[in-house]
Each structure stands twice: as C-alpha cells, then as structure tokens.
Design goal:
- By secondary structure, this protein is of the alpha/beta class.
- It has two domains: 229 residues, 3-Layer(aba) Sandwich (Aspartate Aminotransferase, domain 2); 94 residues, Aspartate Aminotransferase, domain 1 (Alpha-Beta Complex).
- The chain is built from eleven helices and 13 strands.
- The strands form three sheets. The chain has a seven-stranded mixed beta sheet, sandwiched between helices. The chain has a four-stranded antiparallel beta sheet with strand order 10-11-13-12, with helices on one face.
- The chain is globular, with a radius of gyration of 20 Å.
- It starts with a helix and ends with a helix.
- Bound molecules: pyridoxal-5'-phosphate.
- Pyridoxal-5'-phosphate binds next to helix 2.
- The site of pyridoxal-5'-phosphate (PLP) has 14 residues, from helix 2.
C-alpha cells in the first residue's frame, strides 16, 4: 500500500510540477476529461467568491459558438443550441455573448457575474480565433469588475496552436485554465490549472475524484510532455502550421469557393462558400485523410503534432484533386 501510494503521489506531482513550471498556473487538479476539468473550473470560480463571503456571485459569461463539454453544467456553458436542446432545462446561470465583442461583454456583466470563460481559439465550432485586442480587453474588463478569467484550453492547449498553451499568443494570463485531449496522448486525463490566489479556495473535501490523477493517466501525461519537449513538437506545430496555411492559401487562389483559411499552428479551418464540407470530408477519408466537417461549409483540421511537410504536401494534393472534381 505504501509503495502504490508513493507512486500515486509521485507521478501526479511530477506532472503537476511540469505544467506549473511551464505555465502561469501555481496549482493543478487532475480530472478524467475536458468536461470534468471545466466542471472543476466552474466550481472553483463559484467557491472562490463564497469563501470570500460573497454569496451572490455565481453567473458565468461564455461565448456564442463555444464548446465546453457534454455534462449538464458544461452544456449550459456551451454556446450551441444544437447540443443543448435535447437536454433542457439547462443548468441556470450561464450567459452567452458574441466572440470578439468587448461592448457585448461589458453589457452582459451584472452583480451576479463571477467569471468569464473562453476558448482562446474556438475549436469545435470551426476554428474561430479570438483577437489579441479582444483578449487584452477581456482581461482588463475582468480586472476592473473583480471577475475571474477562465480559459478552456482542452482543445487548443499542449502545443496545438504553435505555443504550449493557446493563451500565450495573446499576452494575457487567465486565473484558471483547463486541459485534456492532448495531455494524455489518447489516454483519458483532464487538468484544472489555477493561480494560487484562486486555487486556495478549494480546501480538502471541497472537490475530488476517484480516478482523477491516477498513476497510469499521469504516467501517460508525463510521457506526452516528455515527447512534446524532447521532440520539439511545439516548434514543429508552429512551423508546420505556417507551411500548411501557405499551401492552403495557394489553393484559395485557385478555387474561388474557398473564402477563408484561419487558425493558429496546427488548428486550422477552411471556410467555403459552398455547402460541401461533408462531401469533402468523405472524399478525404476515402483517400486516407481524417478531416472534420463543421456545419455545411467549414473543414476543420487538427493534424498530429509530428506532421511533416511531405504529409502536408500529400494532403494538399488530395485537396487539389477533390476540389477540382467539385468545381
Ligand atoms: C474546447 C473544449 N472543451 C471541452 C471539451 C470536452 O472535452 P471532453 O470530451 O474530454 O469531455 C472539448 C471537446 O471537444 C473541447 O473541444
């Protein structure tokens, strides 16, 4: 027992230490998924104010078209009706505003608001990045109004965007951020990362998880972080992202129905003026490439962080063939 407990604590604290040393967070709580990490973030924001003796601060402002998970609270935080409708009534006290609109955010704040929760780059809804000006403005608005700022980095974290964490593109730091997906390299793990002043609100017994931070998941996380650093995958994500967008822009010049290429690093969206995203996705699949279709007209791509220029060239060739058939 002593031995296994020791291993439990050791793998967990090693991974937590790595995350803390490489981010703005001081403390980490491990969960089993992205939604669970986000639930933890929501709970932490609320308990922070309760412990300060401010009972009536509980509302969280999120963005339209956001995606924060499929549990009841994270569904309510999510800004997409299609996921929410079948499960109404929604958990109360989440309010949504449009992306990159500081005035709308300011208007939405009321005396019950406790936090703003944002994906630095919206993934699931088709790769919609926030702007630097917006993120700086959101930080200022949160500071001015005494609100916590939460970044959901479940999809954009761990090298995906060409930085280790998405927020590093914007010159602002969140008070709380969440991770999952890439952190386990395919094995389930989530992480709730927070600055000390807010993390302190969770005292023993306030929040917990049977499997969160188990040695196997943390060993997977440690192996991932080791590969991320030793194989310079963040740098590769940045470099290959630039290469990929450049090649896609050439295709945009050739095919008039490509209206926008957007994203950061290896989180890339192609917007089309034609409703053919599903057809293109299917044709890519037949040629051995996995791409996502968002709605009728957006193609979302999150290639592996080890992707090479040769891999990108062959996907571009596949796109070229598929697009020329469509025209
Ligand atoms: C930004 C974001 N947050 C949260 C989640 C939910 O994560 P999980 O599926 O691990 O619960 C996702 C999943 O796609 C996501 O993209």
């Amino acid at each position: 027992m002593h031995c296994s407990n020791y291993y439990y604590i050791e793998t967990q604290s090693k991974l937590a230490k790595l995350l803390v040393e490489n981010s703005c967070a001081d403390k980490v709580f491990f969960a089993n998924s992205g939604a669970e990490a986000n639930e933890g973030a929501i709970k932490l924001a609320r308990i922070y104010f309760k412990k300060k003796g401010i009972a009536d601060k509980f509302e969280i402002i999120t963005l339209e078209n956001s995606f924060h998970g499929r549990t009841l609270a994270t569904l309510a935080a999510t800004g997409q009706e299609k996921y929410q409708k079948p499960f109404s009534p929604l958990t109360p006290s989440f309010l949504r505003v449009p992306i990159n609109d500081l005035k709308a955010l300011e208007r939405a704040i009321n005396k019950t608001t406790c936090a703003v929760m944002i994906e630095p780059i919206q993934g699931e809804s088709g790769v919609n990045p926030t702007t630097v000006e917006y993120m700086k403005g959101v930080r200022e608005i949160c500071d001015k109004n005494g609100l916590l700022l939460i970044f959901d980095e479940v999809q954009c974290g761990i090298g995906r965007t060409g930085k280790l964490f998405g927020y590093q593109h914007f010159g602002v730091e969140p008070d709380i951020f969440t991770l999952a997906k890439a952190l386990g390299g395919g094995f389930p793990i989530g992480a709730l990362c927070a600055k000390d002043f807010v993390a302190k609100a969770f005292e023993p017994g306030d929040h917990g998880s049977t499997f969160g931070g188990n040695p196997l998941a943390c060993a997977a996380g440690l192996a991932v972080m080791d590969a991320i650093f030793s194989e310079k995958l963040v740098e590769n994500s940045e470099k290959m992202g630039v290469y990929f967008v450049d090649k896609l822009s050439q295709l945009k010049g050739k095919y008039g129905f490509i209206t926008e290429i957007r994203g950061k690093g290896l989180m890339i969206g192609i917007e089309l003026s034609i409703k053919k995203a599903a057809e293109i996705k299917k044709k890519c699949f037949e040629k051995g490439y996995l791409v996502g279709a968002v709605g009728d007209n957006i193609i979302r791509m999150l290639p592996p962080l080890i992707v090479t220029t040769a891999d990108i060239d062959s996907l571009i060739k596949a796109f070229d063939d598929i697009f020329s058939e469509i025209e």
